[in-house]
Amino acid sequence: MYDAVIRELRVLNKAGVHLRPASQIVKKMHQFKSEVILRREGRTVNAKSIMSVSTLLAPKDTVVTVEAIGPDAEEAVSAMADLFESKFGEE
Known about the structure:
There is one protein chain. This protein is of the alpha+beta class. About 30% of the residues lie in helices and about 25% in strands. The protein has a single domain, classed as Histidine-containing Protein, Chain: A (2-Layer Sandwich). A four-stranded antiparallel sheet has the order 1-4-2-3.
């Protein structure tokens, strides 16, 4: 049994989490074995599904919670934080 790794991240890029950042999230999370979800205002989405992540509707300055459970959960959450902190390469 694995413990959940949870971290809150702020959307920093001007356009928020739209289709391009969503595709980056999904591509990156597929590198990990852990289950990874994103939460925003009571909505939970699978971070490995482009259809799910694209419905997150997270504009700039939104706080998103990432939660990972599995053998590489720490690494998955760290990789997600890197994406958010890099503004998804948009600025």
